[in-house]
Each structure stands twice: as structure tokens, then as C-alpha cells.
Amino acid sequence: TLALRTGLSYARAEFSSLRIRGLCVILKFLRSVAESDTTINLFCHSQSIPDLQVVQVLFRHFLRDTEDQSVTSLDHIFTVESMEITSPSTDSEISLALRVLEGCCLIHCESNVLAHEYNKAIPVLMNILSTRACLDALIAIMLDSSANQAVDIFSIDSSLTEVV
To answer: What pTM did the predictor assign?
Structure first.
């Protein structure tokens, strides 16, 4: 769990280089987890702890809608509360985040449910699919998840017709 905590800590960083390091640590951790049933069970148990949930960090910091990345109001300037601003996700980060998401969904069946509950994963991935290749992650999220399979993917983004 130390490697998972370290990777998640780096993945939440403000700077791209640290976030990439965090994703690489998590990816390496997932590879080691997949080697035995005991470590898979440990990983599955760790995903019930909110501070260790990988899918939540992926969707909060890497796999966001483009609308989530822009400032929609200037109210934070006139109030005491500060607004957290981080550099936008790079293509490298998104690519690594999709690999981590795919690994999580394949190792831990409940990760696809967490993705659906947290941020409506299918619309976000379909948006990314229109500009990048993430088909493997999309299939992994839809695997054994009737809620994710029920989403009408062709009504999500009209730009899909251009991709197909």
C-alpha cells in the first residue's frame, strides 16, 4: 500500500512531471499486483478505502471533461476561498491514466462501477476517444457493468461520426 499511496500522492500534484511519475508508480504497482491472487485480493480491499481509490484520482485529475478544466466564474477572485488551479493534463498523462484505468478495471471488477458512479465514465471516455485512442480503457470499463453498457454512446458526442 505504500507504493499505492506514493503513486496517488504524486498523481494529485500540481505539476505534470510529478503526475506522470505518480501514474508510472501506480502502473508498476498494478503490474506487481496482478502476479498473485493474494495481492489482487489486497488491492480489491484497498479500493474500498476512499484515500486509496485509484479511479477517483484518475477522473478527478486526468480524465475530466474539457468543461471541468475551464474557469466558469470569477467569484473566487472576490471571495476569501482560493481556487485550486493545476496545469491541464498532457497527452502523455492521459495515455498513462487510461492504461492505469484499464488495469484497475481488469484487476478489480468494482472499478468500473466506481468510474460510473464518480464521473459518468463513458461520456468522458467518448469525448477523449474523439480526439485520442482509448478504446481499450472503454472496453475495460464496460466489462461486466450493465450501468456502463446501458449508456447510449452514439448520442454522447456527434463528433464520433467523424472518427468512425
So the answer is: 0.68
